[in-house]
Amino acid sequence: MRTLVLTVLVFATMTISAQNVKVKDIEKSLVKISDNVYVSKYDVSNEMYMQFISDLKNSEKKDLYAKCYPDTLKWHTKYAYNEPFVELYHVHPAYFSYPVVNIDKKSAEEFCKWLTEKYNSEKKRKYQNIEFRLPTEAEWKTFASTCTILEPRADFLGPKGISANTVGNVSEMTSDGSASGNNWADKEPAMPSPWVGFRIAATAK
Hints:
About 40% of the residues lie in helices and about 10% in strands. It contains eight helices and seven strands, in the order ααββααααβααββββ. The chain has helices at about 1-15, 25-30, 45-60, 60-70, 85-90, 105-120, 135-145, 165-170; strands at about 30, 35-40, 130-135, 170-175, 180, 195, 200-205. The strands form two sheets. It has a four-stranded antiparallel beta sheet with strand order 1-2-7-3. It has a three-stranded mixed beta sheet with strand order 5-4-6. Helix 3 packs antiparallel against helix 4. The relative contact order is 0.19.
């Protein structure tokens, strides 16, 4: 049984490493909320975030890699048995579409910088120059109040067995340093934690 689990983990890591940022998918996910500001319909997924982590590892940015890697030990809690999530949540294909959690605001901002560089380096892109970032709290409230543009990337089933829609899936970081929205654990947002993720906003220039 242990050999099987290790094999799955290696396969999952290799799968993530081999993937590239899909520009068309990013562009399709963006919804305009003002003249030059867009927001993604989805939370940032484990799959996309781990592509960022893989790039950091391959570029030998060891300090940043260690800083930005999800803190899987945050799954340890007295409220539920979460051991499978500790080892599998961020790397197993079954959770690729789930929202990345257990990271802090600095890590989310580094991801946004990475995505900005990746997107703007692509020759075939819709926007000439774009900056990905965390939304402000005001921006988050604007698009959160418009349910038609908010879609769950996955119906997240938390360790407690609570299934939630996007507004209550995971709380979401904002550039103001707070986290907005309800979450599957029904807890106060804290970073990093298993119930806080993030959604990207974008400014087209």
